[in-house]
Design brief:
The complex is a heterotetramer. By secondary structure, chain A is α+β, with helices and mostly antiparallel strands. Chain A contains three helices and six strands, in the order ααβββαβββ. In chain A, a hairpin with a 6-residue loop joins strand 1 and strand 2. Chain A is globular and about 60 Å long. The chains are: A alpha+beta, B alpha+beta, C alpha+beta, D alpha+beta.
Chain lengths: 146, 328, 325, 273
């Protein structure tokens, strides 16, 4: 009995540790459907800069039909520290969102997706923040100390 | 009849001078902070009713008349108490009546102000009757939501006493009126306040001295009272009445106070064992003119006991359930 | 490039070193040692030592492997798709771009030396787990991330009750982002604000614990000064706060655990944060760790989690939708 | 005594009685009055900033005679009733614009659906001050920090003006300075989600609040908040009340993280059957 529990515990901690994609606040796997990928381009109509996750509302016109998507991002606090504020993303800017739709595909009031990769049409990142080394600044690296 | 609205200033003078009947030798004691001392336990139980009954022609009656009235009253009590002979059961179809008189304490004698026996609490209008304005009264009551229901349809239609919200018959006032029993009050004073507790239903009137009235949007069940001292006399002014407390029905009196009424009361200590209590009701919504009443509050050694009414109010449920049963 | 980097580091080490002796502990207006300010514990060092390190102290060279791995990881997370490529069905849905994250850019250093784990004892840098207890708890932990029957079964971070992982502690550990704390002191109190879920740990000085039946979130903390070191003892942990998992650490803290934390200011921009956990039910031995809290530039921003928690509703509604399929 | 003369005396006695000379106030950092402590109001402002009679419940529906409690809170009985209270608003009522007043009354009608307090959302400013829960002030020379028992709300009062808030938030961004012995706080950067009380009084995200904390004596503090929002009100308006300091065993903030208490309310309908 003893080692079965041991195996469970070890395997469990490994499983958890390995699944790097678990977003910290909540498991995106629980909210979004891996079999419903999306790749949409549209105009930003509003950004809800709220915790625990920011939501970018994007109006997408496809074949005459307009749907509005709510795209989930991360905590705005990290972006504030990188100089982003509520005026940075002005309504009307066109962005490309690649990610997955939520499991409950109700689209009431709006369709929901995670913003796995949010870029401008030219491919550059909408949400910049990394200090060039691909890792975002946080004041811990003495070389960056302003 | 007097002019329709007696100017308040005159009214006030009338209120104050009335005290001349009393000898001026009594020196009012002071509380520890210097206000005239009205404190103690008081009762206003008396045979005299608010309005003068037909058997009396004028306000002041002789001693003999007072004694006969007391005799008639006690005989009436006995008759009421023993309307059934030993072993006899009540007949059907009769008025169900109440309960034995031992439960009651309506008072044994007519009230005396100074050395005058009085046939009514009302002293103005002169005829000792309420100066109703029938047209205004009908108009005011027609706007009352409760008129279009049978009195057993909803709890809110019962009298305030039956609902255990405040004492029936304006026992707690204002104006404070004698009723069938528990006519007991306690007055306690502290800097800036005079508190009058009416036994029924443990209602405390906290009179703020030199206070401002509550805003119009607030209408406590017994109105909002502010007071001030005129010499040794406490003058209390009450407004902001609650529209649901308009009917003031007792067994021996009925009057009404609309929500816009203004009532001025005065409390004047006339001896160690007596306070002269006088009130004036200005209520143009219901009456042709102001009316004034006067009665003594007599010291009584007895304590005030708890009157927890709502907690044991089986009657309310029985009344409503009874009505529902009858409708089936 | 290597040589100049080396010189640069020695200079910093020296300066850092000198700095340590000269610096004298400042006091608050009422005489307590002053720990006040805004701090961060963001760093790439995790609670437990990764397998590719075998010593607590690692060379600058070895430290750079973690840095490189973190960069590669960020790169891949930030650019999951080629130009114009769309996401494929069946892939892991993943999270979001790296800009939202702020895990730290380097292993932290203490006394000028890189550390491979926060844990200092046991020496192997691994938690001394009692596997039976962990096995028993594993099922509850597993359900937290896979089942969506009831809100109360989800993790505390998802329920917005306390910050995920052990961000609020005790012990306070670094997580994926918002690793920020503010300390304010007043006579008889030390208050530590944890950015994630704006939890204010109010540590009562020279006071005794509340009764045992009161088990608040983040436990009941009392503190005392030993010289210039603040020693904080916490017990009466909330029964639902047993399991604290983030990507970078997973720990169990049973209700009866006794946790001692020590805050010692080492210089103007750094507090040495040490902790010791005694939890016989879940661990064979006590475990101790230490890490620096560095002065963070910028303020603590509001993290109003519950007020915008669409995710919880989506998770539950999603599960119901799938059941109907 | 002439009226003016008498009034002069009452003011003097009032000031004298309530506000011992500034020099005798307990001293905090930089010789300023010491705001440290656990504070709480003793009024009914959180029910309704304006004067209100006692009533059967916060959410009333039409009854046969008089309004009766909403069916879903009827079982609370007297526990759900509302105590009476005088207005804390200077001038009595809040100067709403016409359509804003209509919205406030609609809010009041639908209290159960709309009041953020029911969902345990952060209370915002100045409501956090007069919630029926205490809050603790940490007054140090480096920061002045408010920790509220209700929902673990917090406010860090910056000691210099940080400029416009980067994002709107529930508790807003505040910075403060001393005006002689009164600590003045300028708060802005609010979203439009919070209410001022349980009676639907609301604001837009243009809200600006100026608060004044004046220590009167060891155990009481005067609190004033001037509210400005051109979108909703015709002019700025001010509320005033007294904060009482808790002492002895009462002076310990407990925890009231009410998020877990509303999970059934907010997420219950999505539980697995």
């Amino acid at each position: 009995m003893k080692n079965t529990l041991k195996i469970i515990a070890i395997s469990f901690t490994l499983l958890l540790g390995a699944s790097t994609y678990i977003n910290a606040h909540h498991a995106f796997t629980a909210e979004f459907d891996p079999n419903a990928p999306i790749n949409i381009t549209g105009k930003v109509i509003k950004v809800e800069w709220i915790n625990p996750h920011a939501w970018v509302h994007v109006e997408v016109k496809e074949a005459g039909k307009t749907t509005v998507w709510m795209v989930e991002g991360g905590t705005p606090n990290t972006l504030i520290r990188n100089g982003i504020n509520k005026k940075t993303i002005t309504p009307g800017t066109v962005i490309v969102v690649r990610g997955y739709q939520s499991k409950g595909k109700l689209c009431l009031p709006r369709c929901i997706a995670n913003g796995r990769d949010v870029t401008f049409p030219d491919g550059s990142k909408v949400f910049m923040g990394s200090s060039g080394t691909g890792a975002p600044r946080d004041g811990s690296d003495p070389r960056e100390r302003r | 009849m007097q002019s329709r609205v007696m100017p308040t200033l005159l009214g006030l003078v009338f209120l104050l001078t009335g005290g001349l009947v009393y000898s001026d030798t009594y020196q009012v004691k002071k509380t520890w902070f210097g206000d005239p001392d009205l404190q103690g336990t008081w009762t206003n139980s008396t045979l005299t009713t608010l309005e003068r009954s037909a058997s009396f022609k004028n306000l002041v009656v002789s001693e003999e008349q007072a004694e006969t009235a007391a005799l008639i009253a006690s005989q009436g009590n006995d008759a009421y108490d023993n309307y059934l002979k030993q072993g006899e059961t009540p007949k059907k179809g009769q008025d169900v009546g109440g309960y034995n008189t031992a439960w009651m304490d309506p008072g044994t004698k007519l009230l005396r102000v100074g050395n005058e026996y009085r046939s009514s609490i009302i002293i103005s209008p002169k005829n000792g009757k309420l100066p109703w304005d029938a047209k205004k009264r009908r108009e005011y009551f027609s706007k009352d939501l409760r008129r279009k229901f049978k009195r057993t349809d909803h709890p809110e239609l019962r009298g305030v006493g039956e609902r255990c919200v405040v004492g029936f018959g304006s026992s707690g006032g204002p104006p404070m009126m004698n009723v069938l029993y528990n006519n007991n009050y306690q007055i306690v004073q502290s800097p800036g306040y005079v508190m009058i507790m009416a036994e029924m239903i443990h209602d405390t009137r906290i009179i703020r001295l030199e206070g401002a009235h509550l805003p119009e949007s607030m209408d406590p069940w017994m109105g909002d009272s502010t007071g001030r001292w005129e010499g040794d006399t406490l003058v209390v002014e009450t407004t902001n009445f609650n529209w649901q407390h308009v009917h003031r029905a007792g067994l021996r009196h009925y009057f009404a106070i609309s929500k816009d009424a203004k009532i001025t009361e005065i409390f004047k200590r006339t001896s160690n064992t007596e306070i002269l209590y006088r009130f004036r009701v200005d209520d143009p919504n219901l009456y042709k003119s102001a009316w004034v009443g006067e009665m003594p509050l007599r010291a009584q050694s007895d304590k005030i006991y708890e009157y927890a009414c709502h907690e044991g109010n089986y009657a309310m449920k029985n009344i409503l359930a009874g009505a529902r049963a009858e409708e089936k | 490039m290597n040589k100049s980097l080396l010189i640069l580091f020695t200079v910093i080490a020296l300066v850092g070193g000198l700095n340590a002796e000269e610096w004298t502990q400042s006091k608050t207006w009422f005489g307590d040692p002053d720990l006040q300010g805004t701090w961060t514990n963001a760093s790439l060092t995790n609670l437990e030592r990764p397998d590719y390190y075998d010593t607590l102290i690692v060379s600058e060279e070895e430290a750079r492997t973690t840095l490189r791995m973190s960069e590669e990881f960020s790169e891949s997370v930030d650019n999951p798709y080629e130009e114009g490529e769309s996401p494929q069905a069946g892939d892991n849905v993943g999270g979001y771009n790296v800009a939202w994250m702020d895990p730290g850019t380097d292993l932290f250093k203490l006394d000028g030396e890189y550390r491979s784990s926060i844990l200092t004892y046991p020496e192997d840098g691994k938690l001394p787990r009692r596997y039976i207890r962990w096995g028993l708890e594993a099922y509850g932990m597993y359900r937290m991330f896979t089942v969506a029957d009831h809100p109360e079964e989800r993790s505390l971070g998802e329920r917005c009750l306390v910050g995920f992982g052990s961000s609020g502690g005790p012990p306070m550990l670094n997580v994926l982002y918002n690793n920020n704390y503010q300390i304010v002191q007043s006579p008889g109190y030390v208050m530590i604000l944890v950015e994630m879920n704006h939890d204010a740990r109010i540590i009562r000085l020279e006071s005794n614990h509340n009764p045992d039946n009161m088990k608040p979130w983040l436990g009941d903390s009392v503190g005392a000064w030993e010289g210039n070191t603040l020693v904080v003892r916490t017990k009466n942990h909330h029964p639902q706060q047993k399991f604290r998992a983030g990507i970078r650490h997973q720990i169990l803290v049973m209700e009866g655990a006794e946790i001692t934390e020590r805050f010692t200011r080492t210089d103007e921009n750094e507090i040495l944060y040490q902790f010791e956990v005694d939890d016989d039910k879940a661990y064979k031995d006590t475990w101790r760790g230490e890490m620096p809290l560095r002065a963070a530039d910028g303020e603590i921003y509001e993290y109003a989690c519950h007020e915008g928690n669409y995710a919880m509703a989506n998770i539950l509604a999603g599960a119901r939708a799938e059941e109907r399929k | 005594m002439s009226l003016i003369y008498r009034r002069f005396f009452t003011i003097l006695s009032l000031v004298g009685m309530l506000n011992i000379a500034a020099s005798e106030l307990p001293k905090g950092p930089n010789d300023k009055p010491n705001l440290n402590g656990v504070w709480q109001v003793l009024n009914t402002a959180n029910y309704n900033l304006e004067a209100h009679s006692a009533s059967a419940a916060m959410d009333l529906v039409v009854g046969p005679i008089v309004p009766v409690p909403h069916p879903s809170i009827l079982a609370l009985g007297a526990v759900g009733a509302v105590p009476a209270g005088l207005s804390v608003v200077e001038g009595g009522t809040i100067p709403y614009k016409k359509d804003a007043l209509k919205k406030r009354n609609e809010n009041k009608e639908n209290w159960l659906q709309l009041d953020p307090e029911i969902k345990c959302y952060l209370p915002g400013v100045p409501r956090a001050t007069y919630m029926p829960y205490p809050f603790q002030i940490f007054h140090s020379e480096k920061a002045i920090f408010f920790a509220y028992e209700y929902a673990g709300a917090v406010r860090n009062i910056y000691l210099e003006d940080p400029g416009e808030a980067p994002m709107d938030s529930w508790m807003g961004q505040s910075w403060g300075y001393w005006d002689n012995d009164t600590f003045v706080v300028e708060a802005s950067g609010f979203n439009d989600q919070t209410w001022f009380d349980r009676s639907g009084n609301f604001h837009s995200d243009k809200l600006k609040v100026t608060e004044r904390f004046t220590l009167l004596n060891k155990h009481t503090m005067g609190y004033e908040a001037t509210i400005q929002d051109e979108e909703v009100f015709t002019k700025p308006w001010t509320i005033k009340m007294t904060l009482y300091k808790r002492i002895g065993q009462d002076a310990q903030l407990q925890q009231f993280k009410c998020v877990e208490f509303v999970e059934e309310l907010l997420y219950g309908k999505w539980r697995a059957k």
